[in-house]
């Protein structure tokens, strides 16, 4: 087998991950409304994929063309487009099936031609009272450049008005930023029947009300489309410097903000398609795709449940940590012993309460925190403002380059600065992606530090749907090094030494190589050797090659990889001892965890970093060892539950088949439910 078969293209691997999301929409054991919402998650993921991944491949295609290369990126782009089309066709089939299934539950997603006279009259009143004020059509005259103002987060209707041989086209933005995408119609005679109309169809029904009096036409019709722009501003996040250096300024300018995908209603007339392609300056490598009547399916993430409770997931109430429940304050609990939280099984309120108490506790002198993404109405950020108002020394490192959260973070930076918080923007060449908080407290004659080291953001909203670990500790071996990370961010030219933490870009790569090599050495001595990794993405070739070497030395390796996995398991003579699975379920699997057998004295780490080149070499990331043996075993137990999942686990293989793990004679285990039960028993 040639070495190029040892690595899966990360873009194709990512599409396989999103196919697993689509499988959830196809899974009849998933509650019906949740299946519809998975269509929204799939669509949202595809949008981001085109903004970032496809844009990057397009740039390489253009560079290759300039240099006379014909394969490479161009071949990859063709493979991406083929897979995208196949997934889009599957998506349409699933959507049609779900519409029928919803109807069987007396939930009807109607279009404008399916309304009763009473419903039509109600919708026209709704349009007049609620919708019309937000619509400002753009008439596509010759001098109008829609690329300048169209948003890639929105669906548009292209309205065609025909009178004889004369045609006028207009663009109407669906105003989902101010109006709901789904309009629940009043019940009719049968109160069991629930009818829902998408806002797009409200506008379609009322085109005459919108355009009559301004245009003369014999026929008026509307078809939906959306475009996805190149997220070129985030090129630095990919940190392929050789690629950046190859790109001329002129090439960058040509690509900036241009659409990379144009998706239109397959019923849209050819002349309308051609007009939009020309006006949007769609290039040869762009994906022009026909699709269903509706776009921006990401809004389906919020599809309302107007039916019975069993149509959505049964709630799993967030657990309260016993350590915090039994202590008068967060600091008393953490001082007694290290605390490990696992969200959303545990309540994120423990973290917000830790920061809230620090904001007014007279003994607290200072608070330091990294901020990457936070909720729009963040209790944590408001607590930091309160801390500043209480005279605490508050330092917040805000990452202004957090993809798609730049504007929100800039606004928070202004608010914090005005309140007297010291706001820092990290290292110019490195994104700060670590999840750290450090509180310094005067206790008697001593200064005691309390640290949070996590795998996920300080975000109350995502903590309800992302699984993530947080370690809260007063162990000076950890807290002292957390303080050193903040010093490094402020003064990166002064290199700190870390004995416990793995800190990118200082010692993460070297430390991970050393941990893998130790397992290789044990295997060669005939000692037990194994590695278990849980990651979002595994694409760094240096680490993949190290894992291949470990496999060849006889180290057993188990991988749980949610998203991109360039490593190919089960290659004879290369990765025979590597098994990889992916779990997609009601919660988004997000933590990064590493377990090294270490001859029966396991070394366990939780980390903010995926195994990607950018995370190891070009970001500030932190992995902490779990020093408490009870907590170490807890993480090992949780990973063991996931490795034995027989319900939601899919095999990662060379063919990217996304086959479910064969249950055989084993009992049915759904790991996310089993983990909840495991933690509930612990917390009593």
Automatic annotation (TrEMBL):
Residues 7-109 form the Polyphosphate kinase N-terminal domain. Pfam families: PP_kinase, PP_kinase_C, PP_kinase_C_1, PP_kinase_N. Catalyzes the reversible transfer of the terminal phosphate of ATP to form a long-chain polyphosphate (polyP). Its EC number is 2.7.4.1. It catalyses: [phosphate](n) + ATP = [phosphate](n+1) + ADP. Its cofactor is Mg(2+). GO terms for molecular function: polyphosphate kinase activity. Keywords: ATP-binding, Kinase, Magnesium, Metal-binding, Nucleotide-binding, Phosphoprotein, Transferase. The active site is at 433 (phosphohistidine intermediate). It comes from Zobellella iuensis. This is Polyphosphate kinase.
């Amino acid at each position: 087998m040639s070495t190029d078969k040892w690595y899966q293209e990360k873009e194709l691997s990512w599409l396989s991950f999103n196919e697993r999301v689509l499988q959830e929409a196809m899974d009849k054991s998933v509650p019906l409304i949740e299946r519809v919402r998975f269509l929204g998650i799939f669509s949202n993921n595809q949008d981001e994929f085109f903004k970032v991944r496809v844009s990057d491949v397009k740039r390489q295609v253009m560079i290759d063309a300039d240099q006379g290369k014909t394969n490479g990126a161009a071949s990859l782009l063709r493979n991406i487009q083929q897979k995208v089309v196949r997934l889009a066709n599957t998506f349409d089939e699933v959507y049609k099936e779900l519409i029928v299934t919803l109807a069987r539950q007396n939930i009807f997603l109607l279009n404008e031609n399916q309304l009763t006279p009473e419903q039509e009259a109600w919708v026209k009143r709704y349009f007049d009272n609620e919708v019309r004020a937000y619509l400002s059509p753009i008439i596509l005259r010759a001098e109008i450049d829609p690329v300048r103002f169209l948003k890639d987060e929105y669906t548009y209707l292209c309205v065609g008005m025909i009178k004889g041989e004369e045609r006028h086209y207009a663009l109407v933005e669906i105003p989902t930023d101010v109006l709901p995408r789904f309009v629940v119609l009043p019940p009719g005679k049968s109160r069991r029947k629930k009818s829902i109309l998408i806002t797009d169809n409200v506008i379609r029904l009322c085109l005459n009300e919108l355009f009559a009096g301004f245009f003369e036409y014999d026929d008026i019709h509307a078809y939906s489309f959306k475009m996805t722009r190149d997220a070129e501003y985030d090129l630095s996040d990919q940190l392929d410097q050789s690629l950046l250096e190859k790109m001329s300024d002129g090439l960058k300018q040509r690509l900036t903000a241009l659409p990379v995908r144009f998706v239109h209603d397959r019923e849209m007339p050819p002349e309308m398609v051609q007009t939009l392609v020309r006006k949007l300056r769609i290039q040869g490598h762009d994906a022009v795709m026909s699709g269903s009547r509706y776009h921006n399916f990401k809004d389906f993430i919020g599809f309302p449940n107007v039916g019975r409770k069993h149509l959505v997931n049964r709630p799993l109430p967030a657990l309260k940590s016993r350590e915090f429940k039994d202590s008068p304050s967060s600091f008393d609990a953490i001082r007694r012993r290290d605390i490990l939280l696992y969200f959303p099984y545990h309540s994120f309120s423990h973290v917000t309460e830790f920061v809230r108490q620090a904001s007014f506790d007279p003994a607290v002198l200072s608070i330091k925190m990294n901020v990457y993404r936070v909720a729009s109405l963040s209790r944590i950020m408001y607590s930091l403002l309160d801390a500043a108002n209480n005279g605490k020394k508050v330092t917040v490192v805000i990452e202004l380059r957090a993809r798609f959260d730049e504007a929100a973070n800039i606004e928070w930076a202004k608010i914090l600065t005005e309140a007297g918080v010291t706001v820092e923007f990290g290292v110019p060449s490195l994104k700060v992606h670590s999840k750290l908080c450090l509180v310094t407290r005067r206790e008697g004659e001593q200064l005691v530090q309390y640290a949070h080291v996590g795998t996920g953001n300080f975000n109350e909203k995502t903590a309800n749907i992302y699984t993530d670990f947080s370690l809260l500790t007063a162990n000076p071996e950890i807290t002292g090094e957390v303080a050193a990370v903040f010093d490094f961010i402020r003064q990166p030219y002064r290199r700190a030494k870390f004995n416990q933490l793995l800190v990118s870009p200082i010692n993460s790569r070297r430390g991970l190589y050393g941990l893998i090599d130790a397992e290789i050495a044990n295997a060669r001595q005939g000692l037990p050797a194994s590695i278990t990794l849980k990651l979002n993405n595994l694409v760094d070739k240096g680490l993949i090659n190290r894992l291949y070497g470990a496999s060849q030395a006889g180290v057993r390796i188990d991988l749980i990889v949610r998203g991109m996995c360039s490593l190919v398991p089960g290659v004879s003579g290369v990765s025979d001892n590597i098994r990889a699975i992916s779990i997609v379920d009601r919660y988004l699997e997000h933590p990064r965890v590493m377990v090294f057998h270490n001859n029966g004295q396991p070394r366990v780490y939780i980390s903010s970093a995926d195994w990607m080149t950018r995370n190891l070499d070009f970001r500030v990331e932190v992995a902490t060892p779990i020093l408490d043996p009870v907590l170490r075993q807890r993480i090992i137990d949780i990973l063991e539950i996931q490795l034995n999942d027989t319900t939601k686990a899919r095999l990662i293989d060379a063919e990217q088949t996304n086959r479910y793990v064969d249950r055989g004679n084993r009992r049915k285990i759904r790991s996310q439910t089993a983990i909840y039960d495991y933690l509930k028993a612990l917390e009593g």
